[in-house]
Every structure is written in structure tokens, then in C-alpha cells.
Amino acid sequence: MSQIIETSTIIPSLVGVGKTDFGLLSAGNFRRSTRDLPFIVQWNGTQYLVGNHVEQYTNPTERMDFLRLADGPEARALTYATLASLITGAMPLKASIEIGFPVEVMMDRPLATQILRDLRSWLSGPNLFTVNGKEYQVTVENIQAAAQPAGAFYSWGMDNMGKWMRGPADLNVMVGICDIGFNTLDIFTVSGGEIVGKFTGGDTAGIRRAAEGLMRAVKEKYDVTLSRQAADRYLREERPILSCYQGNMDILPLVVQSLDTASAAIGNFIETLLGNGKQFRYLLFTGGGAQMIRSNLLRRYPHGQVLPNTVMANALGLARYGRRVFKTAQTVIGLDPGFGGFKAVCLKNE
What is this structure's pTM? Predict the structure, then answer.
């Protein structure tokens, strides 16, 4: 009897042109482990650094436009690093991909069509690349797009075989999903298998606003310039300590202030679209930002629920739905190409 093997990964959405090898130049035998080094991704004679600590080796590209989802080497480098992190076993590999786009993108048919076409132009078919010197050969057989928060709905309602695992009644009630990401805030509502347009929408008002608020506060108080990704890391730490010329400074008060300000703006957008939210049988919160402002969300919406593992919920649900759609595929990947991190789940039939 076959079984589904699940693997997952998350890679910070940082890409830059640079290198990690500086010849004999060394600071001594204090080097961090290779787990903290960026991925070195290569194809067609090009090389990029991807993921953790890229900013320590080069100036990373931090594109925030929607075309960045499929256009340019940044998307390609991040996708290849993500695939390499998921893959176990021998090459070559064949896979089908269910990818998530923000609600704003999916509601704009020409834009969504263009992004999906651009993505398929280089990702469909065989892909040959190396990551950290290891060669990979991945043939992508199918690529289909869905709204990112739809992934959270599938994660909530389906199992790894792509079957609905909740009671049949839950397919007919109205379910609202609020997906708070780094750069996007998406609200997706379904009832009876249909989208409820009145309660569906999106905005570029994610947790990035808190990161940018923290950047301004740190610059003003300590005259230190943070990147968005560095600020985002501080927002996630229990004890955020900034090391600078003044010493090791506890910036928790600045973090709390920045999160509270962003939470108010996010809450106002949700309330404008959903009101008090009591029309929903289920009101689900997902995305990395939902965990960061969890207490504020549940104060506004005490009947809501924050999904477990909010960061990976979209990717897991996309993979589960992909298993339902790509019935003959041995390997299905759910890909959530967030502006803060690329999240992916692989479901392999063995």
C-alpha cells in the first residue's frame, strides 16, 4: 500500500549576487556552521546567494512588486533553492506544482495570467541547476495557481490525500480566511464551494508595515540602518537585542510599538471588509503575521481561530489541493512564494 511522504521548507526571500568564499581571508576558527550560510544557486553560468544572511555578503534585492513572483532571476533562484531543500532521493525528479498568488493578483485576470505565463515559460519542463555544488534535475509537469489563503482553507479542511476530512456540513457554511503575510493582507471567503465576493479582497498592508516602522524607529534612536528582512527577524524574536556602537540594546519596546501600529492598520482593513465577522461559521487567521499579532487579532475577533503552524498552512494546503487535482502525479509541491519567505510542502507518493 502506498504512503504519502511529507517534507517542507522555508527560505527567507533574500537574493543577491555575491560569493561566500574569500580565499585565505579568515577571522580565525570562529566560523559559523554551514547551516547559517546562504544557498549558492547556479544555472546557465549565473550564480546567486539565496536565503539566510545574504545581507552579510552582498546587498540583497528586495523587490515588493507583484511581477517579482515570476519575473527575473530572483524568483528563479529562490524557486531552485526551495526545490533543492525539498528533494530527497535520486535525480531526476518529476513534480507538479500548485502555487499560491495573493488575492489582489488572482482578482486581476490579466495580471494573474501574465505572471502565470511568465512562470511557466522557464519553470515548465526540465530544469537543470546546482545548489551548493550539487546538481539537480527537476522536470515540472504541471503548474496551476490558486489564491494563497485558499491554501489555508485546504489545509484546514483536507488531508494529505486531497480528501475532505471535515464534516460535509462544513463545506456549506461560510468560512472566512484572513492571511497576513509580510507584504500582503488577503481575505478569502468561501461558502458551498463558491467564492463570496463581498467578503473577499486584498491589500499590500502586511507585517512589512511593522518592519518598516521598526526600521524608522531604530534609525531615529540609534542611527543604525536595518534592512526589511533584518527588521522582520527582530519582530519575531522574544528578546530582540540590537548590537551597535552603544552596546547591546534591548529594542523590545520599539518592536511592540511597531507591531501595535501595524496591527491597528491591519485590523482596520479587516473590519472594513468583514465588520465584526460574526456572519462566519468559521473565521480563520493564517500567515506568519497572524502569529505575530495573535493577541490583538483575537481581542477584535474572539470567535476567530489562528491556525496551527500559520507560516506553513498555505503551502501545506496548496500541496493537498494539488494532490487532489494532479491525480496521477507521484510528487506534488505546494509553493507559497511569500515576500518574506518561500514556503513549500512536498507530498510524495511512495
Answer: 0.90
Phi, psi of 97 (to 5 degrees): -120, 130
Domain assignment of residue 327, yes or no: yes
What cell was used for 86? 525539498
Q: By residue range, what is the domain housing residue 26?
A: 4-147+314-349
Give yes or no for a cis peptide into 73 (omega within 30° of 0): no
Number of CB atoms found within 10 A of residue 110's CB? 7
> CB under 8 Å to 280, separation ≥6 — which residues?
174, 175, 176, 189, 274
CATH number at residue 344: 3.30.420
Each residue's pLDDT tens digit, 53-110: 888 888 877 776 777 778 789 999 999 999 999 987 777 889 999 999 999 999 999 9
Q: How far apart are CA 37 and CA 57, in angstroms?
A: 10
Instruction: Give the separation between CA 313 and CA 310, rounded to whole angstroms.
Output: 5
pLDDT of the residue at 273: 93
Quick check: is 261 in a domain?
no
Can you spell out the DSSP letters for 173-212? Answer: SEEEEEEE-SS-EEEEEEETTEE-GGG-EEES-STHHHHH
Cα→Cα distances 239→182, 275, 331, Å: 20, 35, 40
Contacts of 318 (CB under 8 A, 6+ apart): 98, 99, 100, 146, 150, 151, 154, 334, 335, 336, 345
Q: Which residue, chain included where needed, has cell 462544513? A: 170
In this structure, what DSSP letter does residue 213 have? H
Of the CA atoms within 13 Å of residue 170, those in its CB half-sphere come to 12
| Assigned domain for 127 exists | yes
Domain count, the chain: 1
* Residue 86 near residue 346 (C-beta atoms within 8 A): yes
